[in-house]
# Entry
Amino acid sequence: MTHAVFSDLMPSTVSIAQEAPADMAGREALLEAALGPARHRKTSARLRAGRLPAEGLAFTAHDGIHVVGTIRLWHIIAGGVPALLLGPLAVAKSHEGQGLGSRLMRRALAEAAFRGHAAVILVGDAPYYQRFGFSRSLTENLILPGPVEPDRFLGLELKPGALSDACGLVVAAGERAPAANRAARSQSGSRDRLERKAA
Ligand SMILES: CC(C)(COP(=O)(O)OP(=O)(O)OC[C@H]1O[C@@H](n2cnc3c(N)ncnc32)[C@H](O)[C@@H]1OP(=O)(O)O)[C@@H](O)C(=O)NCCC(=O)NCCS
# Structure
């Protein structure tokens, strides 16, 4: 009997934990299946590219065998105000409609609030995210660095009034990922060399 058939017969217990290096391959496979390669071209991906997720704010859900859910939050500056960007959120097809997406959302938002973060923005389906308190009205004065359907650009205040002065462009603010750091250093190294040559 294969794992797949066997696991269909077992009541599955899904646990949520902080993302670990061992989750990476399973997480990528899940994202590829749930969102496809287009995920890399989304405007919100520009705010994540080359950055690390916010400390303690990346979670995976496991069914004991596979990664079956993922969520991450990222540092951004939203029109002058420090905030977090949520995404991607994905749940394996096999586990959809069982409340796992909601569990991941509530866990990540609770941890963000516990860590003192004041606000979260995201790009996603309002009918889904409204249940967690996200609304379009909080992002009306904000601009993302690329195209987005306005109705899908949503915000949530973890501290009341946190987004009231947020106005203007949203920019990435997360710590650079090690590979991006190396690339940035080598770019600035080549720039330095060119500038020295030109001088
Ligand atoms: C969206 C997603 C995370 C929901 O996960 P889930 O575990 O099935 O969600 P939950 O079980 O917590 O909630 C299910 C409820 O949300 C609703 N729902 C799911 N996706 C929805 C959407 N895009 N718009 C509106 N409602 C949605 C379901 O109809 C269901 O409603 P009900 O509670 O009234 O029956 C999951 O379907 C998924 O990974 N989709 C593909 C990736 C994606 O679109 N991610 C979000 C953008 S980053």
Observations:
- Confidence is low (pLDDT under 50) at residues 1-11, 190-199.
- Residues 178-198 form the longest helix (21 residues).
